[in-house]
Every structure is written in structure tokens, then in C-alpha cells.
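hey so i finally got around to running the thing on that chain from the lab meeting. sorry it took forever, my laptop kept dying and i had to restart like 3 times. anyway pasting the input first so we r on the same page abt which one it is
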Amino acid sequence: MRVLGVDPGLTRCGIGVVEGTAGRPLSMLGVGVVRTPADAETPDRLVAVERGIEEWLDEYRPERVAVERVFSQHNVRTVMGTAQASAVAMLCAARRGLPVALHTPSEVKAAVTGTGRAEKAQVGAMVTRLLRLDAPPRPADAADALALAICHIWRAPATGRLQQAQQAQRRALEQYRAAQAAGAARAAGASRAGASRAGEARAAPAAASRTPGPLAARPAAGRARPEPPAGRRPDRTTDQRPGSADATPGEGPQ
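ok and heres what got predicted. didnt touch it at all, straight out
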């Protein structure tokens, strides 16, 4: 793995390139500093930093870029310049599609020296020892850039496993939420179906009471006359005794 470490700054931007893998000896490919004049305007200084980083990227072709994470300080002006230079480094890497990792100074010191409160002299001494150099890199910004690259190489396996675990956790959480949503949708559908069946059951008796029966459906053709009792002749409204004028012809006495 070839990593370009960047210790951001407007006046001095430390850059170092280290190659190797975790658990094996590392080798330094290059180290230096991109300088900008302190009396220049900030936009011009940022352009100079961008050009310097691009030259290093063109020459060494790193696989990854490690940048120091900016943290709060009492000097706001210094923090702003450091943050701006850090953004330029990340922009240059992203433009080429290179993965960018941010490491805090405490993480770098702990990875290189074993303690997160080490002084710059201790960091420089350990960088010299780990890379088998003849002397500590100067200025200290260059040594810090190499320490960033070393930190990233050593932390890369653990960071990769952590990222894989986080991705697996996110996938599991998404699957759990999807299962919950599907279960809620099924429960809501069953509830609506039950409510629909209950409504139909309540509506059936009411509809049956409103449906006309056989007698009610039969059209009224006038009031029906009651049937006479058995053995009794119906009353005649006209006198049909023999010999009367209203008698039916042919019904006289024989």
C-alpha cells in the first residue's frame, strides 16, 4: 500500500509518501514541504498548496491519502488556515478518486509512539527509526506527514474490518426495518379486511329487513272477499226465487 500523508498548513504543508503493509517493514519514498509566502493573499496561497499537492500525486501515484484532522485551537486564524489547506488536500485526492482518511494528532502519536501525548521530537525520532532514516526529517511538518502515512498503513486493516462491521450492521438494520414495515403493512391489511367483513355482516340483517317479502311484493288488487263457511251458500244480492222478474231464465218450476 502506498500512502501520501498530508500535514495541512498554509505556510508549510508537510507531505510524505510511505509504502508497505501492516506488520512488515515500511519504506519512505519521498518527503517534503509545500511552502507559501505569508504575505500573499489566502486564495493565492491555497492555489499554491493545490499545485504542490498535485505535483506529488503525479509523481508518486499513491493509492490512498491520509490527512490530519483539524481540531480546535485557541488561535482561530491558525485553525482556519489549517482547515482550508486540509480541504485543498481532500479536494485533490477526491478529484483523482483516491480514498481519503482523516486521523487526529492523538491517533497518529499513539500509533507511532504508543502514547497520544508524545512530543514532536518523540514523533520525529520514531519516524526515523521505523523508516530506517539517517536523521529525522526536517521541518517537523514533514515528519508529521510521514507519521500520518505510517499511522494509516498500520490502522488500515483494523479500519477495514470496522468499516465492514459497520456496513453489515447497517444492512442488518435496514433488513430489520424492512421486515417491520412489511409486518405492519400485513397487519394493517388484515385489520382492514376484518373491518370490511364486520361491516358486511352488520349490513346483511339491515338489508334483509328492507327486502320485501312474498306478500309485500305481490301487487294489491283490492281487498279479497272472505271464503264462506263450508255448507253455506253465499248470499244473493238479487231475488232469484222462482217466478221473480230477476230469476234466471230456465230456472222456473218444472
